[in-house]
Write a structure and sequence with these properties.
Layout: E1 17-22, E2 25-30, E3 35-37, E4 42-45, H1 52-58, H2 67-82, E5 86-89, H3 99-102, H4 105-117, E6 119-123, E7 138-140, E8 142-145, E9 148-151, E10 162-164, E11 169-174, E12 179-187, E13 191-193, E14 204-205, H5 209-215, E15 220-224, E16 229-233
Parallel strand pairs: 4-5, 5-6, 6-7, 9-10, 10-13, 11-14
Antiparallel strand pairs: 1-2, 2-3, 3-4, 8-9, 11-12, 12-13, 12-15, 15-16
Length: 238
């Protein structure tokens, strides 16, 4: 079935953000893959996977060594757009624990400049369970703010108001013009799984049993298209 969401009155057809409600909290999903909580001036991003290219290179798999610079440039742009008080990274910010030491001087300086401008919070992930002491920012395993709880990987138990990353949700959708494949937010009224923000990250289809185990059979996605966000119910995806 073809689904072509119609922009709401007063919105441009090139929608670069989309509102959603999670556990009674109003949030804004951005086309970049970031999530913004206006009432708390909080910007949330997940799965940067900085230095993934250099990690693969160490294993003999040559990849272009530009992923960190590209990701940091996108991160700086979205921070500048929303100008939040706090930036929260939901884990796997580095592809492995050696990532910070492999960063080039320019990239490390760019990251530290960003961290210095905001209240920066690192949530640890499975790829980066430990971060070096000389990397600025606060480190925790999870955080609860008001009605929302933030962690890297979704809890195995039902929980209300949870925002997590880890799974890199992706989908294939059909618009009126063509088929599109790419990243998405996946969520229901209680839980939300963030897309990966990093420039060199793959995706797990929302049809996968791991994502279905978190959200069940009935949930929505916000698909991040080339120029706008599309909202789909999961049961109408390709």
């Amino acid at each position: 079935m073809t689904v072509d969401p119609v922009p709401r009155i007063g919105q441009s057809s090139a929608m670069t953000s989309e509102p959603l409600i999670l556990n009674g909290v109003s949030l804004l999903a951005d086309l970049s893959g970031a999530l913004y909580w206006p009432d708390r001036s909080l910007l949330i991003i997940s799965d940067l996977h900085l230095e993934k290219g250099s990690s693969f290179a160490e294993k003999g798999i040559p990849l272009p060594p530009y992923d960190t610079a590209v990701t940091l440039k996108r991160l700086a742009a979205i921070c500048g757009q929303y100008n939040p008080q706090t930036v929260m990274c939901l884990g796997d910010s580095f592809h492995d624990t050696g990532g910070p030491d492999r960063m080039g001087k320019a990239d490390r300086a760019a990251l530290e400049q960003l961290i210095a401008a905001y209240d920066w919070l690192w949530i640890t992930g499975n790829h980066d369970p430990e971060l070096p002491e000389d990397l600025p920012g606060r480190r925790i395993m999870e955080e609860t703010i008001g009605a929302l709880t933030f962690r890297h990987e979704a809890s195995r138990e039902p929980v209300r108001g949870e925002i997590s990353g880890h799974y890199h949700p992706s989908a294939r959708v059909r618009t009126r013009q063509r088929y599109l494949s790419g990243r998405c937010f996946a969520y229901d009224s209680d839980r939300l799984i963030m897309p990966a923000f990093g420039a060199l990250t793959g995706g797990l289809t929302v049809h996968d049993k791991a994502i279905r185990a978190v959200l069940g059979p009935h949930f929505d996605i916000l698909f991040l298209g080339p120029k706008r966000i599309y909202r789909f119910p999961a049961d109408r995806l390709c």
